[in-house]
Amino acid sequence: MRLGQARPLDGRLQVCDLTHALADGAFDRRGFHGGNFTWLGQRLVATGTLSGTHRKPVFDPACQRCDEPTFMEGRFCGVIRRAATDPALVGCQVFGTYRLRFDGSLREPSTPIRGVLQGLIVCECQPAQPPA
Fold it and tell me: What is the reported pTM?
């Protein structure tokens, strides 16, 4: 991102097909999760995949159990499909990580989720133009 530029990824991350592989098949246990996302930014749309599992503690309390059922951490990667104000971003890749905490059960679509998503946009370098 260029300095002084607004944050193109400000917006909403939607995951409609989040799937879990849970330890012992119990919904209150942790395991692997994955799904497809659509990122609806203020000026762009990106699509891709996300996946993750429980990792070392990043939230208070610092001593989480390995099977803590209310935390999700992982990585997302995708491609920008539309960019309203900067068409050069179309085709660029989006990479990042997330750390989420949810209150309640993931069985309920309206479960409140809070956390941090950090990412960046990576575009292929354009070849330099030869001097005239």
Answer: 0.70
Q: How many CB atoms lie within 10 A of CB 98?
A: 19
Residues recorded for the chain: 132
Q: What is the dihedral of CA 107, 110, 112, 117, to 10 degrees?
A: 90
How far is 81 from 92, CA to CA, in rounded Å? 8
Domain ranges of the chain: 11-122
Closest CA to 33 of 23, 22, 24, 20: 20
Q: CB atoms < 10 A from the CB of 72, how many?
A: 22
- How far is residue 86's CA from residue 73's CA, in Å, rounded to a whole number? 31
Mean of per-residue pLDDT scores for the chain = 78
The band of 122, judged by pLDDT with boundaries at 50, 70 and 90, is: very high
Token representation of residue 21: 């592989």
CB atoms within 10 A of CB 78: 22
